[in-house]
Trichome birefringence-like N-terminal domain-containing protein (Vicia faba), 437 residues
Amino acid sequence: MERQGSLCLKVKPTRVLLFSFTLFSSIFFLSFFTISLSNSSPNTLSLNLQPISLTESSPNTLSLHSFTHNNFTPANFSFLIDNRLSRTLNRSKDEVKMVKGCDLSNGHWVFDERYPLYGADSCPFVDEAFDCQGNGRFDSNFTKWRWQPQHCHFPRFNATEMLELIRGKRLVFVGDSINRNQWESMLCMLLSAVKDPKRVFEARGRKIVKEKGNYSFRFLDYQCTVEYYVSHFLVHESKARVGQKRRPTLRIDAIDHGSSRWRGAHILVFNTAHWWSHYKTKAGIYYYQEGTMVHPRLNVSTAFRKALTTWASWVDKHINSKKTQVFFRTSAPSHFRGGNWNSGGHCTEATHPLKETLNTTYPEKNVIVEEIIKRMKTPVTLLNITSLSEFRIDGHPSIYGRKTRSSRIQDCSHWCLPGVPDTWNEMLFFHLQSRLE
Ligand SMILES: *[C@@H]1O[C@H](CO)[C@@H](O)[C@H](O)[C@H]1NC(C)=O
Ligand SMILES: *[C@@H]1O[C@H](CO)[C@@H](O)[C@H](O)[C@H]1NC(C)=O
Ligand SMILES: *[C@@H]1O[C@H](CO)[C@@H](O)[C@H](O)[C@H]1NC(C)=O
Ligand SMILES: *[C@@H]1O[C@H](CO)[C@@H](O)[C@H](O)[C@H]1NC(C)=O
Ligand SMILES: *[C@@H]1O[C@H](CO)[C@@H](O)[C@H](O)[C@H]1NC(C)=O
Ligand SMILES: *[C@@H]1O[C@H](CO)[C@@H](O)[C@H](O)[C@H]1NC(C)=O
Ligand SMILES: *[C@@H]1O[C@H](CO)[C@@H](O)[C@H](O)[C@H]1NC(C)=O
Ligand SMILES: *[C@@H]1O[C@H](CO)[C@@H](O)[C@H](O)[C@H]1NC(C)=O
């Protein structure tokens, strides 16, 4: 959010720059056009215009860059630039502020019959764990809540527009099973705009199965892929000899070995949170490893901070922010009542969002993530979903996470689909859209 604020400050000088550019380009264009009429070599135009991409420090002009890669002839190039500029110049200061300064995380849930955005039985990508209605959940009101931020216009998700935004691109989710939850939601939301579902398929023919995490779905008509790579911690899970035994360790100083698959993505959505509260990570006894050293004991907060710093360095080193937009999704709340996930905790009875959230403090992990992101060279947008999801005790699979029901173990951590992760994706859509404008 801080970073977005600072982008606003750049608007003014950029406008001046853009304005002088208009003047310059008109003159340039007129003279060039006369020349090109005589020796007609359209290709030289795009070469000559390459320096324009220098202005892409402003989000308003980002799309100019991509023009230089296409075969635009002089005849339509000037039109496109003029169009772009007048749009930019027409936008009021308030409008720019609304997009950049609006706090999406502050708002309330509104019952809206136009939701859900896709039918539970029309999406083949929802796996058993999230297919609550398929597993026998009868109440469906939990699919009909829309998030309404307090002070901003939050557009309804439009799958066609989203597909256009990612046309020719790779949208990649990396993280734990909650990110897989969000990724499946995105597949379903996008599928609703595709006429022929056969033109959407997994690149290597893989079926979505639990516990596997290595998928790339291709949307042929848009030449884009929507991918998911499992990584519980974003850093490398390893093994090391401690005394006589080989023990599982976490290399908090080394990025996940799957990272080569994340590179080259155009939009990256990361998360890690839940696995840091499991016994091994919490106790931190002979578990965290740096180099060849396995810490006899390390505080989980310290370890989390080190791991995220490792992730941040990897992003700063390997991600070109001119090509790739990076998002980090904050932690999703669980709603176990009367126990924990393994000790009879439950949430079955909830069919309505909470009226108010228990005044839980903003999780320390999110605070750490925010601190680290602020210091990064690469701009990272936070998908700040923690507080809005706190209300949604009704959104979990509870006993409907399996076909065969067991009332003893409930899932109050993941989310039914359609459901709450659809809103997280609406936020992603909002950010991608406002970045363009
Ligand atoms: C630009 O003009 C060329 C030739 O007239 C045409 O082939 C191309 O599709 C146009 N591009 C756009 C984006 O309108
Ligand atoms: C910008 O403003 C001018 C003059 O008010 C108007 O003619 C033009 O259509 C506007 N452009 C856009 C894209 O709204
Ligand atoms: C679902 O919501 C509607 C509208 O608020 C309400 O009339 C209905 O009773 C709710 N159904 C259940 C099962 O809560
Ligand atoms: C989605 O966007 C497209 C293109 O802007 C538009 O034609 C369509 O009506 C929109 N769909 C909905 C449901 O708003
Ligand atoms: C993902 O698939 C690729 C290609 O089939 C394979 O090389 C890689 O090992 C797989 N990674 C995981 C984590 O399954
Ligand atoms: C970890 O250390 C922080 C301060 O560095 C402390 O506030 C926190 O209570 C410690 N956590 C555990 C589980 O020991
Ligand atoms: C949460 O805090 C607000 C103000 O800080 C208070 O009005 C409200 O009663 C609190 N709610 C609960 C459930 O404690
Ligand atoms: C995210 O949301 C929480 C709770 O609404 C808020 O305290 C925090 O400042 C937000 N973070 C950012 C970066 O906006």
Remarks:
- The chain has two domains: 2-97, 107-436.
- Residues 11 and 120 are 43 Å apart (CA to CA).
- The first strand starts at residue 107 and ends at 111.
